[in-house]
Backbone:
């Protein structure tokens, strides 16, 4: 069984004010071509397809285009689970009819959720889709009173999904979750605000392959066959050093797996430049593109007139400029005070302290975290 | 060929503050059953499926449920065009794949738009889908410079769609348009603000059947085979006397058609009551339901404490109360001044006059009409 695993496309994403749909289109055209070349038996997409529950129409058209072309040209079945950014109801339109065409959109949690079975010459493989769901929904829909946190909720989901699988048969799980031990970057939205939200990577051990989504860095967690495919593109400057890729998995008849990561070439890379103004103005080195999305950190201490304007004459897509020397010791405390790097909880706590003069108490912190979670939950429109 | 024609479902509609999804569900369950009983060769849905371009998730789930059940249980193909309330991009997700399952979602205008051919024992019938589109889009996408207004745009669309149909073969058009001579009610949004927006009914004459959407009153326009199916439910109190229905069309081998209108029973009717307070408090007559959505017009002149509260003890769903005697001659000019019955243009012109003391000039009126149209166009997210 040949499996192509990709994740966290975040279609409709806005990066420092720029819509990335064109960049996403560029990479996804390569993905379509790749699917035609490697001809996998199945494609797995493990959540955060869209960047928000009501995506812009360009994002909807792009997803439609990519999935339709793969299915119509190559007849490769696709299994897609929703992540914490997606709306299960919106993505789920037509799901039952689309499944007959080989497009399995899995977002809704019901007690009828079950594995999708795909055969190769060695027999069946059971693919268990575990879309992102909040623990209260698992308690209600699967009648699982123990699902009080993400760990227990995932356990209940796995038990439910595994029940119909015969002993000794190959099994793959698709999950959108934060596996403990995985490495975060700055562009994932936390699964719970102020809480842990993690699940043990060991939960995924019994599967022959665990296709994970949520963390944006491609990585294995705990063991080689428990893997994040990582995001489609670099979605924050903290990911500048990531090597984004999709994962090609070959599984033999005994369920043993081998892996290959395949890079796709972005239209523009995301890079950080640090140095003195005049050096940076000298422009890109051989092999570097001046069109990349650039964050510049200047070491200069003196005044520079219209620094960003001049930088953009050399690098038209400079999106962010930092001058740590100017702000260190001043009222801004250097790059650490960049509000774009703070979580909602940190932002609010800093605002609260500035306004009231006292830090947030534990209870207040908790109240804020709960409110924020409710807000995200509503935004995802997951209703009981 | 047996055709079931329905239109203007407006899923997600809010009626005087009440979400109608439950009422729409109630009637659509009957529609599913009807489809199973009459077993049409095709179902036509002629636009305004949703009430707005970004519908609430309940509306999406309901549409998914209805279409999936009809297709999966009865295998009746469905052709659905978008109306002026729908977003072609959002409704179009998965369209190419869904078409293979018999669900034809037609919203996008491209030069590849063509008839859908369905056969009966007499041979093929060509179904020409003409979704709601603005004239500028027709000019651009069909390279039709003459499409300067809705009339010309529809003509271009019809010519484009008819081109591949062989001479003498039966043809049906689906259109979402305001055919001149048709009777409006208060719940359709005008197709052009301050303009005509109408198209000649004679454009539809050459078809063996014209399945129209937009007007909410079931009616024929000009001749028997050019018909509005009307809306799913009564969507304003001005429609209290309408008889809502779906249309069953039987077409013979020569393309001659016979019609039957079939009523579905709403969970709650929409009714108007007029009279004296004490008489209305006496309650419903035999055969009338106290649960209907009610608008009450009171003839009393004296003061009545908490009239609506007392009326709701008898009719829990009184949604609107009018007391024309109290307002006649006063600052309000009676029911005519009810802002809910004014168009956006009338509302704005009255507001403008109140604030500035002078009426809108012709130019100002035109500027407002253009702005409003732009707004609607953006809302529909139809982009060139």
Residues:
């Amino acid at each position: 069984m040949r499996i192509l695993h990709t994740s966290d496309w975040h279609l409709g994403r806005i990066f420092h004010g720029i819509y990335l749909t064109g960049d996403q289109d560029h990479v996804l055209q390569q993905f379509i071509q790749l699917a035609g070349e490697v001809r996998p038996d199945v494609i797995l997409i493990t959540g955060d397809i869209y960047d928000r529950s009501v995506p812009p129409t360009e994002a909807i058209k792009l997803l439609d285009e990519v999935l339709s072309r793969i299915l119509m040209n190559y007849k490769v079945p696709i299994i897609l689970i929703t992540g914490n950014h997606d709306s299960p109801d919106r993505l789920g339109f037509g799901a039952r009819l689309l499944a007959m065409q080989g497009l399995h959109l899995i977002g809704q949690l019901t007690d009828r959720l079950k594995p999708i079975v795909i055969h190769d010459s060695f027999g069946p493989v059971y693919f268990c889709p575990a879309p992102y769901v909040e623990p209260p929904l698992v308690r209600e829909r699967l009648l699982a009173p123990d699902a009080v946190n993400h760990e227990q909720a995932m356990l209940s989901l796995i038990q439910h999904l595994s029940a119909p699988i015969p002993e000794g048969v190959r099994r793959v799980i698709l999950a959108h979750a934060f596996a403990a031990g995985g490495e975060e970057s700055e562009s994932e939205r936390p699964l719970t605000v102020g809480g842990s939200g993690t699940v043990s990577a060991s939960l995924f051990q019994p599967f022959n392959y665990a296709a994970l989504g949520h963390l944006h860095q491609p990585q294995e967690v705990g063991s080689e066959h428990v893997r994040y495919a990582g995001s489609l593109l670099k979605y924050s400057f903290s990911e500048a050093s990531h090597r984004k890729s999709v994962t090609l998995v070959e599984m033999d008849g005994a369920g043993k797996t081998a892996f290959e990561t395949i890079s796709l070439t972005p239209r523009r890379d995301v890079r950080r430049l640090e140095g003195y103004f005049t050096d940076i103005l000298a422009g890109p080195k051989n092999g570097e593109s001046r069109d990349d999305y650039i964050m510049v950190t200047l070491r200069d201490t003196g005044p520079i007139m219209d620094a960003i304007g001049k930088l953009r004459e050399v690098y038209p897509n400079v999106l962010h400029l930092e001058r740590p020397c100017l702000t260190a010791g001043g009222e801004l405390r250097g790059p650490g005070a960049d509000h774009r790097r703070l979580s909602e909880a940190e932002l609010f706590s800093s605002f609260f302290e500035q306004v009231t003069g006292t830090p947030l108490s534990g209870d207040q912190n908790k109240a804020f975290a709960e409110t924020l979670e409710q807000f995200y939950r509503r935004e995802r429109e997951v209703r009981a």
Confidence is low (pLDDT under 50) at residues 329-336 of chain A. Residues 339 and 346 of chain A are 9 Å apart (CA to CA). The first helix of chain A runs from residue 21 to 38. The radius of gyration of chain A is 22 Å.
